[in-house]
Amino acid sequence: MASVLVVEDDAVIRAALIEVLSGHGHAVRTAHQGFEGLREVTRHPPDIVVLDLGLPDLDGLDVLRMIRGISRVPVLVATARDDETEIIRLLNAGADDYLVKPFSGGQLAARLAAVLRRSAPADVRAAGGSDLRVADLHIDPAARTARLAGRELPLTRREFDLLAYLAAHADQVISRQRILTEVWRQPYLEEQTVDVHLSALRRKMGEKARQPRYLHTVRGIGIKLVGSP
User: Which of 49, 153, 188, 217 is most buried by its number of CB atoms within 10 A?
Assistant: First the structure.
């Protein structure tokens, strides 16, 4: 499941996008205007943005450029503009992909999934089909599943990326800033964002911060996934 921010002013289209994305298991937030979308990106960072270009307050291309000024969050542009020059401008401005309206729900879901795969942390992509194993923890990057002692962990997309990234660097202390840069791709976020997801991971793995088995916090330095007891 990914958290998706839909920036779209048309209520009918917005409702249709919410229905399609929710039906594919994603958590959806919406914004009706460009400035509202920018606020959402900074206050509640999504995993991906679906951005309409025809917004009432700002041109979507300007919104895209502003997003790129503060974040590396993947952006999938939904546009009625299908000329080659415009598409080149979008890609050069930082769009990860685009869809030309009208498009089907299946197209949207497939393109969104492809962008999310490409935007996974480099270490997880490099693992490809190779599993990551750390003691009783088994991570399958291709299937995007994580199992602990044979039990599948019900992780969100961001929790999975964080756990897989730490597993790829097992027994190394990783700073929160590095995690924000390489996992979130948003180095300007508050470091507390990492701690919130770390707490959720610990809970799902049956750990406690005071008595961790895998996820250790090294005070003042960062986080380490420990391989051996």
Answer: 49
Res 204 pLDDT > 70: yes
Would you list the DSSP string of 45-109? Answer: --SEEEEESB-SSSBHHHHHHHHHHH----EEEEES---HHHHHHHHHTT-SEEEESS--HHHHH
Where in the chain are the domains? Answer: 3-118, 122-225
Give CA 34 to chain center in angstroms: 20
pTM over 0.70, yes/no = no
How many CA atoms lie less than 13 Å away from 216 in the CB half-sphere?
A: 14
At residue 182, does pLDDT exceed 80? yes
Confidence category of residue 17, pLDDT binned at 50, 70, 90: very high
Q: CATH topology for 122-225?
A: Arc Repressor Mutant, subunit A (1.10.10)
pLDDT band at 131 (very low <50, low <70, confident <90, very high): confident
CATH code assigned to 3-118: 3.40.50.2300
CB 91 within 8 A of CB 84: no
